[in-house]
Design brief:
The complex is a heterotrimer of chains A (277), B (312) and C (446).
Chain A (H helix, E strand, L loop, with lengths): L1 H37 L19 H8 L3 H32 L5 H10 L5 H14 L6 H9 L2 H12 L3 H9 L4 H12 L1 H16 L3 H6 L8 H6 L9 H27 L10
Helix pairs in contact in A: 1-13, 2-13, 3-6, 3-7, 3-10, 8-9, 10-13
Chain B lengths: L1 H8 L10 H33 L3 E3 L5 E3 L3 H7 L2 H31 L5 H11 L6 H12 L5 H8 L14 H26 L3 H9 L4 H12 L1 H17 L3 H9 L10 H11 L3 H26 L8
Chain C lengths: L12 H15 L15 E5 L8 H17 L4 E5 L2 H6 L2 H7 L6 E4 L1 H9 L12 H6 L2 H4 L3 E2 L2 E2 L2 E2 L3 E8 H6 L11 H11 L5 E4 L6 H13 L16 H15 L15 H6 L3 E7 L2 H8 L5 E4 L11 E4 L2 E4 L6 H12 L4 H14 L7 H7 L6 H10 L3 E3 L5 H15 L5 H18 L7
Parallel strand pairs in C: 1-2, 1-3, 8-9, 11-13
Antiparallel strand pairs in C: 3-12, 4-5, 6-12, 7-9, 7-10, 7-11
Helix pairs in contact in C: 2-15, 10-11, 10-18, 11-18, 11-19, 15-16, 18-19
Classes of the chains: A mainly alpha (277), B mainly alpha (312), C alpha/beta (446).
Chain lengths: 277, 312, 446
């Protein structure tokens, strides 16, 4: 009886895994296309064969040698890293206060902050551009970085997370006579390490792939980010899609590596709210 | 900033003695200040300015005329506005449930921690790694008339001669599928976090009581996932209505066509502002969009007491 | 679109936004970040041929032109690159103008002309252009850049539309170059013949946009159709318009034409004809250099647009023009630069136009002297087919306000892909056009 159920369980598990593999292959199938095109010559790009007939490395060579692509990668890395670190610092502070500290107007402040989540960039881009210009931040790293820091999504997610943390942890610290800054640095931050790891990936990724704002605020090619450089492979009627795909592959690889490395931490972490214990 | 915070929140003897409540309030305000100021300055203020423009006729070159509510009454008789509103509604109604189901489904599929699942999770999340322009081009290739992989697959199951992106009745569905494919890994991550919060003892107790897997799902998993579900539904609904990411995807795949069948409200706003330089009318449309979203948000928050559920 | 540059107005959107911005900026001064905004008088020149882009000689041409100017003149010009797709369909140009900080010199297509002219930002270039040079531009090329006899833009190229066909596809169907369609009926018939399980016979643009309208106009004109009558009323509800709408619809309904394009769309010949997706493609003259550069091993031929029964051959010619921002730093100097670059009788100015149309791109020159100076480049081979057969029937791309563009675009989309009845669609579009034209007060629509 128990033998039978064990083999049944194994069959179920096998089917489960098979379904998972099929779905996962479907999920990455379009990416295989991207990879395939990156190795194709210009005339083969739009043929639907997945395996290039004559794979070439020319596209990668072009992207890495004919265009200052390293510079764009470094720009993008610096911008993404700074935005991520500063944003996480501010957002954890705000999330903590909104979830755990009582102050007059807290819910109003939260709703006001949340309401900024309701506008998308194209809607506010003209006034934002004027604002950033009047601060003298056009064509500068500051202009690329500072407006990208503020984002209600992260604050909202962190607030939901802190709402679920057991109160006792803080109370112990309060009894020890710790101030709020100490509670934040020695209790809250360590506790939220997993969710910070997760948000770090999401923020970094969002900035790594951002396009519209960097395009708008920086005209100087020395300040271009990778997505702007990639868009430049496109002209009025045609595009060098083989270069686009090679460049996109180069851009995606570090992200994939980063994700694989950090994923355990992320998996143990993302909590939108959750339960005590 | 930090200096002040330390002094005020650190509880050192100050000149004026503050009650615990006051100290907490001051700390709260200071903690929230950097983000609150930044959001106000870089999103709130531009938002108010953008919306304020809605009572002007603006030509995009400095010409500027007060027209009262004319931009709003123009909306009423603008068939393209109504059609974009309808498309947005259809898109939202398809996208939100699909994302919920695929996100949760994938999370359940790879929930257990194992080497195998680690690889699978990375694969499901992988679409997030590339930009939407690349996503759009690859999808275009997969669904192109006659030759696309999906078109051929459809033909092999008896759906020959269909055009995924060229048929006005099908195009919105196709771009929704592409959006789901792109976004599902993100929501899978969020659901995985939620699932891990559910104490394992509950499932064990249920198993001892003889509950089936299906019953455990309906009576334990789903109810205890409420906070996560709240977050996912709200964020995906907002994303669908503002067209946050889908906008780029759709623009590259169809440019709003064929015959306006994939022109979302945000695409229409974009077109009015940047292609027609009709910034005033675009602002009026944007105001309406924000009001719609506020209504959705208020609905969600009222339903859930501010997303706080059982706490406090 | 009712406001013009000289409209009296106490308010300026700019000042309001500035006020708001200053309010915000007052709270936070950040002297340590960013470079101060460029205070010097260098004129900025925006265009979309950026280094690392699709074709190197095009970038080189711009770089050399600006270097030559800067070497001899005190007013300096600096190139600023806006990536292609974003320049044309994106936010960057509109954002910079809306914030009162448009470029001093930029390039526009006829589809954008009225938007900028009616916005009051185009500088009158006439004083900077000598009389002989003005006469060097044929009327058909310069007319849609002029208002009241004044020149507001200098075209850099003329890009007429034609058909390209795949020699291989023709051979497979047992056809040769003598079988190229000359009438619409033949076009549909041969299109069907060339259609296989893996290939479409004929391809018209399907993506909505200015470009689709542009490629459709000649089919409307060929039967004598116009969207506007001489009296300024809508002329859209005409048999010629209806049959043009129906041609594109029939091509799709018969299965000979696709509903979706590959790559960059109907103007992208390598992605569609080059890849074998279609056998005949409606593309402009730029197809020559695109095929030669990116699909050199795909043999192709060119033929001029077929005509309907009782119709007359005509094609449409597009192309971009240099314009100066009248609200820029130094509009007179900008106008001088444009005249020097493209519209002077000096040999280097003429040669610059020849180089752009032969070395950098494959285009027809907008100037008679350049056509002569280019000589064989415009008479031999594939360029010769354009020069001798296709170009002589070229009519300039209409300049229409965005509202008119949208009405026509919707009519094309609804019939071509939405399956709507061409006659009913034309009638409805005509009513919308009339409603718009009655309230329109900008420069004449051409």
């Amino acid at each position: 009886m128990s033998n039978l159920s064990r083999s049944q369980a194994n069959v179920v598990r096998l089917v489960w895994m098979l379904v998972t593999v099929v779905l996962a292959v479907m999920a990455i199938f379009p990416l295989l296309y991207m990879l395939s095109i990156a190795f194709k010559g210009p005339t083969e790009v739009f043929k639907s064969n997945l395996i290039p007939t004559k794979p070439v490395l020319d596209n990668f060579v072009y992207v890495l040698t004919e265009v200052p692509f390293w510079r764009y990668l470094i720009n993008t890395f610096v911008i993404s890293a700074v935005v991520t670190v500063v944003a996480l610092f501010f957002h954890t502070m705000a999330g903590y206060a909104l979830a755990r500290l009582k102050f007059p107007g807290r819910e109003v402040v939260f709703l006001a902050m949340f309401s900024t989540f309701l506008v998308s960039l194209p809607v506010i881009i003209v006034p934002l551009f004027i604002l950033v210009r009047s601060m003298g931040m056009l064509n500068s790293y500051a202009g690329l970085i500072i407006p990208a820091i503020f984002n209600a999504f992260g604050i909202f997610l962190l607030r939901q997370y802190y709402l679920s943390l057991p109160k006792e942890l803080e109370e112990a610290a309060v009894i020890d006579g710790a101030g709020y800054w100490r509670i934040y640095t020695s209790v809250i931050l360590p506790l939220s390490r997993p969710i910070i790891a997760a948000l770090a990936i999401l923020f970094f990724l969002a900035n790594w792939n951002s396009f519209l704002w960097p395009l708008t605020v920086a005209s100087d090619p020395n300040l271009w980010v990778v997505q702007v450089a990639i868009a430049n492979f496109k002209s009025q009627y045609a595009a060098s899609w083989n270069y686009t795909m090679a460049a996109s592959t180069i851009v995606a690889v570090p992200m994939l590596v980063l994700f694989v490395i950090f994923q355990r931490q992320i998996m143990d972490s993302i909590k939108t709210s959750g339960l005590k214990g | 900033m930090t200096e002040i915070t330390t002094t005020a929140a650190g509880g050192r003897p100050a000149a004026i003695r503050l009650t615990t409540k006051q100290r907490e309030a001051i700390a709260g305000v200071l903690f929230v200040a950097p983000d609150a100021i930044g959001l106000m300055l870089f999103i709130g203020l531009p938002m108010l300015l953008a919306l304020g423009i809605s009572v002007f006729e603006v030509d995009g070159f400095g010409g500027f005329k007060f027209v009262g509510l004319a931009n709003y009454s123009k909306m009423w008789v603008d068939p393209l506005f109504w059609s974009s509103l309808r498309v947005t509604a259809q898109f939202t109604v398809m996208l939100v449930p699909l994302l919920y189901v695929t996100g949760l489904g994938l999370a359940l599929l790879v929930q257990r921690t194992s080497k195998f699942n680690t690889i699978m999770r990375s694969m499901f999340f992988a679409p997030q790694m590339v930009s939407l322009v690349v996503v759009a081009l690859v999808w275009q290739l997969m669904v192109v008339d006659k030759l696309g992989v999906l078109t051929r697959f459809a033909a092999s199951i008896g759906l020959g001669g269909i055009s995924f992106l060229g048929d006005p009745n099908l195009a919105l569905f196709t771009v929704t599928l592409a959006a789901v494919w792109f976004l599902m890994g993100f929501y899978m991550l969020i659901f995985l976090g939620g699932l891990q919060d559910i104490p394992k003892e509950y499932y064990e107790a249920a198993r001892i009581d003889g509950a089936s897997a299906t019953q455990s799902f309906w009576f334990i998993t789903l109810p205890l996932l409420r906070p996560t579900s709240f977050f996912v539904l709200l964020v995906s609904a907002v994303a669908a209505i503002t067209g946050a990411q889908a906008f780029d995807l759709i623009y590259v795949m169809t440019r709003g066509g064929p015959a306006n069948s994939t022109a979302l409200l945000i695409s229409y706003i974009y077109q009015q502002a940047f292609q027609y330089s009709a910034f005033g009318y675009a602002a009026a449309l944007a105001t309406l969009l924000v009001v719609l979203l506020m209504a959705v948000t208020v609905f969600f928050f009222l339903l859930t007491r501010g997303g706080r559920f059982d706490y406090e | 679109m009712t406001t013009t540059s000289n409209m009296p107005s106490g308010w300026s959107r700019r000042s309001i936004l500035k006020g708001g911005a200053a309010l915000g900026a007052a709270g936070l001064t950040m002297p340590f970040m960013g470079q101060a905004f460029a205070q010097d008088n260098t004129l900025s020149f925006w265009q979309f041929y950026a280094p690392g882009g699709d074709v190197k000689p095009q970038v080189d041409w711009f770089v050399k032109m600006v270097a030559d100017w800067n070497a001899t003149q005190s007013e300096q010009v600096a190139l600023e690159y806006v990536v292609g797709s974003e320049y044309i369909g994106g936010t960057k140009l509109a954002t910079s103008f809306a914030s009162g900080q448009g470029p001093d010199i930029f390039i526009i297509s006829p589809g954008d002309f009225l938007r900028y002219y009616n916005g009051g930002v185009l500088q009158d270039l006439t004083p900077a252009i000598e009389e002989a040079a003005r006469a060097d531009f044929p009327e058909s090329v310069i007319a849609n850049r002029m208002v009241d006899g004044k020149i507001y833009g200098v075209p850099m190229e003329v890009e007429p539309m034609a058909f390209y066909y795949s020699v291989k596809a023709f051979e497979e169907a047992g056809l040769n170059e003598n079988d190229v369609p000359q009438s619409w009926d033949q076009l549909l018939e041969i299109g069907k013949k060339l259609t296989t399980a893996e290939r479409y016979g004929v391809l018209f643009e399907t993506n909505p946009g200015y470009y689709q309208n542009f490629t459709w106009y000649p089919f409307m004109w060929q039967g004598g159709g116009e969207f506007q009558s001489a009296e300024g009323k809508s002329a859209f509800d005409s048999p010629a318009t209806v049959q043009a709408l129906k041609l594109w619809q029939d091509a799709v309904n018969s299965g000979a034409a696709p509903r979706q394009m590959l790559g960059g769309g109907g103007g992208d010949i390598v992605a569609n004809l080059g890849s074998g997706y279609c056998a005949m493609q409606n593309v402009g003259i730029w197809g020559i250099s695109a095929m030669d550069n990116n699909a050199p091993d795909v043999p192709y031929g060119i033929f001029k647009l077929p005509v309907p029964t009782g119709g007359k051959y005509v094609t449409v010619g597009g192309g971009w023009a240099f314009v100066a921002n009248s609200k820029g730093k130094n509009p007179e100097a900008a106008a001088k630069f444009i005249a020097w670059a493209l519209a002077s009788m000096a040999p280097d100015s003429v040669q610059r136009v020849v180089d752009w149309c032969t070395v950098a791109k494959s285009d027809m020159p907008p100037r008679n002297s350049a056509l002569t100076a280019g000589g064989d480049a415009f008479n031999k081979g594939n360029m010769g087919i354009f020069g001798t057969q296709i170009h002589p029937g070229t009519r300039a791309e209409p300049r229409v306000p965005p509202e008119v563009y949208k009405i026509i675009s919707d009519a094309i989309q609804q019939t071509q892909l939405g399956g709507a009845d061409p006659q009913a669609t034309a009638t409805a579009a005509s009513q919308q056009l009339d409603a718009f034209l009655a309230s329109y007060s900008g420069a004449p629509i051409l």
